[in-house]
Amino acid sequence: MSTETADGGGDDDTAVTVTQDAAAEAIRLIESEGLDTDEAGLRLFVQQGGCAGLSYGMRFDHEPEPDDAVVEQHGLRVFVDPASQNYVGGSTLRYEGGLQGAGFHVENPNVVSECGCGESFRT
């Protein structure tokens, strides 16, 4: 397992950067699920699907898998499996509130095209 700890952005293109707002919202949700934020975290992964070929997935996990990359930023642990890391390295995870489009969004510099709704992508 590789672990990287950072408080803000980084220049490592293999890392995932998490904004402070995204970390705060994810921690709030993890705690509302009764999980321990010292061990649990947000899993960011890529899966086949969507009109552009690939889509992002997120879920809360109790702990990382042995081969996961673990990024800790603003008190949030983010777990990324090796296959997904190839697609999301260098990305920024943001949380945007509001009446429309509230939720987590991945800004990924590796994307060459996205579908019209922004839910799937191709690298």
Please explain how this structure is put together.
This is Iron-sulfur cluster assembly accessory protein. One of its GO terms (molecular function) is 2 iron, 2 sulfur cluster binding. It comes from Halobellus limi. Pfam families: Fe-S_biosyn (PF01521). By secondary structure, this protein is of the alpha/beta class. It has a single domain, classed as HesB-like domain (Hypothetical Protein Aq_1857, Chain: A), CATH 2.60.300.12. The chain is built from two helices and ten strands; from the N terminus they run E-E-H-E-E-E-E-H-E-E-E-E. It has a seven-stranded mixed beta sheet with strand order 1-5-6-3-4-10-9. The longest helix has 13 residues. The N terminus is likely disordered.
